[in-house]
Amino acid sequence: MAPAVFSPEQISALSAPLDRAKVQTRSQAGRSLAYLEGWQAIAEANRIFGFDGWQRETIAVQCVAERERTLGSGNRAGWGVTYTARVRIRVGGVIREGSGAGHGIDADLGQAHESALKEAETDAMKRALMTFGNPFGLALYDKQQREVTSSTAPTSARQAPASQRNSAAAETTAQVGLEPLDPATIQQILATVRGLPRPELEGFTKAFRKRFQVPADAPSIADRICQRRHHEWIEAFLVSHRSVRPADQHRSVSPAQQRQAVAA
Questions:
Q1: 261 and which of 5, 110, 201, 252 could share a cystine (Cβ 3.0–4.6 Å)?
Q2: Domains of the chain, first to last
Q3: What share of the chain is helix, strand, coil (3-state, %, to 5)?
Q4: What is the pLDDT along the chain (264 residues), one digit of tens a residue?
Q5: Does this model's pTM top 0.70?
């Protein structure tokens, strides 16, 4: 008999319903689509399989479209780029693969290619991970979403004693990652982020602002990194962007530039 790949705890986690608090929605072609963000899928893989318990490999990538286009209401000149990718996920002896596509639109052709490539790899990774179970979005393929549950306390909890309500509220807060980070962890995160090569640092800052809706007039994101959900998202971002292109390795970044990028 072949040895078991997953522990009973992992099987339980993979079989559990998907927490609706982790589901995002977007409008596409007049329909509302539910999905998991890439960082959330990576965070779930780290939680269930362990940080060293799974591997991701991009086995195919191809640019399938590149054309000039106008951008925004000002009709600025720009580019539209599309990539396809195939990603392989390995957990012990279990191998799953997924295909995905990504689209990049930018005034700079290089940035459009980068955005499209990253989106294609992330899309393919999510499709491969989805085959492992509900926590990776499998439950969203059921139109009735019967395996998607809310993490909020049921109505009956409102009539429960105060101590029980407080406990339920604390549990709900923990589930959506709102627990505050300790100062030492925050400083460690900032030190790691500021050590990124400049292109990745700028990409991180832009992505963090978009993900957590940091106002455009906020001078810095440093003071916004304060909750567990921020830590989990940053860890996932660093995992998915851990490869540094050779061209980036030769770009020197001064401490002042690093501080400026995080403050951007």
A1: 201
A2: 8-141 (3.30.390.80), 183-244+253-263 (no CATH)
A3: 50, 25, 30
A4: 556 689 899 999 999 999 988 898 888 778 888 899 999 999 999 999 999 999 999 999 999 999 999 988 888 999 999 999 999 999 999 999 999 999 999 999 999 999 999 999 999 999 999 999 999 999 998 888 889 987 544 444 444 455 544 554 444 444 456 778 888 888 888 888 888 888 888 888 888 888 888 877 777 888 888 888 888 888 888 887 664 343 343 344 455 554 555 554
A5: no
